[in-house]
Amino acid sequence: xxxxxxxxxxxxxxxxxxxxxxxxxxxxxxxxxxxxxxxxxxxxxxxxxxxxxxxxxxxxxxxxxxxxxxxxxxxxxxxxxxxxxxxxxxxxxxxxxxxxxxxxxxxxxxxxxxxxxxxxxxxxxxxxxxxxxxxxxxxxxxxxxxxxxxxxxxxxxxxxxxxxxxxxxxxxxxxxxxxxxxxxxxxxxxxxxxxxxxxxxxxxxxxxxxxxxxxxxxxxxxxxxxxxxxxxxxxxxxxxxxxxxxxxxxxxxxxxxxxxxxxxxxxxxxxxxxxxxxxxxxxxxxxxxxxxxxxxxxxxxxxxxxxxxxxxxxxxxxxxxxxxxxxxxxxxxxxxxxxxxxxxxxxxxxxxxxxxxxxxxxxxxxxxxxxxxxxxxxxxxxxxxxxxxxxxxxxxxxxxxxxxxxxxxxxxxxxxxxxxxxxxxxxxxxxxxxxxxxxxxxxxxxxxxxxxxxxxxxxxxxxxxxxxxxxxxxxxxxxxxxxxxxxxxxxxxxxxxxxxxxxxxxxxxxxxxxxxxxxxxxxxxxxxxxxxxxxxxxxxxxxxxxxxxxxxxxxxxxxxxxxxxxxxxxxxxxxxxxxxxxxxxxxxxxxxxxxxxxxxxxxxxxxxxxxxxxxxxxxxxxxxxxxxxxxxxxxxxxxxxxxxxxxxxxxxxxxxxxxxxxxxx
Length: 665
Hints:
Elements: H1 10-30, H2 36-52, E1 67-70, H3 76-86, H4 92-96, H5 126-145, E2 157-162, H6 163-167, H7 169-181, E3 186-192, E4 195-196, E5 199-200, H8 209-216, E6 219-224, H9 228-240, E7 246-251, H10 265-268, H11 273-282, H12 295-325, H13 327-338, H14 360-371, E8 378-382, H15 386-389, E9 408-410, H16 415-427, E10 431-437, H17 441-454, E11 459-463, H18 481-486, E12 492-494, H19 499-511, E13 517-520, E14 541-544, E15 553-557, H20 561-574, E16 579-583, H21 587-591, H22 595-601, E17 608-611, H23 620-623, E18 628-630, H24 641-647, H25 652-663
Parallel strand pairs: 1-2, 2-3, 3-7, 6-7, 8-9, 8-10, 10-11, 11-13, 12-13, 15-16, 15-17, 17-18
Antiparallel strand pairs: 4-5, 14-16
């Protein structure tokens, strides 16, 4: 970027001060926020955003842009100042409206790529861990599309992280994987200021972070975080490293220049008018007006934006020539960018109607065998449970260090890290899925929540879904996990009853583009009971009705318990009692249906009995005051699953007795 001086000058210092003061003014205006990080990290941001970051504010979605992740999301005012100064569609009024109702400048950055916010951050550790997935996606795409003379995928993922990000366990998991895979396009700036909310980090940690990252296989550097020239040199060294990700420990002063410098108080409290005035005086900045932006700072960023537009123009010319030289790859690139599923992809789903009893984890594996070759952006994985989760299709082979041509990731025993990496892959336009046991959904729950919040189409394959896993016992038998997943907004949870419902569940998951989906699958074999054209996509449907009489009771079940409900229906029929069996694989999908459809499945004047091997409380929403639930409001037990089902009352005979109780017979 030759139009911008290579030697750091007074304008660079002016830009850093502008960033500091815009952020401090925004926090003070809101009387809420975190001024410490913007004041301390502005020099790092100035170097990166004026000299290195490849972006075009006029087209925030340029596919080959560098990604910037503010993992220390509490410092969001710095990001908003950067976006505004750089020319993104984020007005100064929005900066002034920091943390207010309806503003685009939330207290922590919320995913909005149209204005340059690449990922939702705030929960510490999530940003840096998602960035691992973003960096992996860049290498994965480069392996598929790049030719020696056409590097159409050629960008970096930059992260600004703090002590808190590195303390959280998820960063250990994700960054260990990043080092193992050698994600050299990942560059992390560690804002090393030794302060957390409680005070000095010495209160709780004596970790040598660079030694830790070196042990992971990272390239490590240490610089003065207020010396722009040395920061510049470190970034160049990081870019020159082609086999390892890089972390640059930038020694900074939190709240630089303020009366609260180097104290915990400046982390999360507005400076106050008096301290803000003193801080501005320290930097030779006018006390008034607030939100002052010098013309020289605007001009430098305008130059930077023009250079970014020129970079994108050069890339577009490269892409045009690429399409001519490699038309098939060019078409695949367009499909990737559009995010659309290929024509006819749904025609390959298997029909299990004539199959023997199979676990739904097994039928899920067969679905993957059929669809994986048809979906170029599908990338799978498992947290060291590949054979148990049945998540690796026959056509897939692993991603490995130095070889990113595979389409399957061995995440190791890192559920939380896996969830974050999948979020990063999805942020980059890929379609990730990952497997583990349902009981370990608790380990990645924060990343599921982030996927739901960002509306990312991540797919979770949760197997061993109930007490049906048997002898492993209560530590591995999920009881409360289904309920805990169902309460997450914008997450669709699906527990299919057989192979054909499993096929439909995968179809629903892949067609969802505005949120994640959890597939909840059995370890034990189940008979094939649903038609191939079942209505799983509606969340619940009538699977079986009495032949000659109107239903007197509705039996509602999910997953492996649907078979039990069908057997109970037959026994009730022998006693002259008509029962309807409703398969309800997904509460969320059912609740989204029109009132008329829901009433047709669950008539208000017919009593209901729900059967599910999980906590019973949430079912009151569906069975009503006069209904009953056969659930499990305790932990499981270690024994063959048939014995456990019998002891806990998950039998057709017990369902018959409960149904008669509901009916008063």
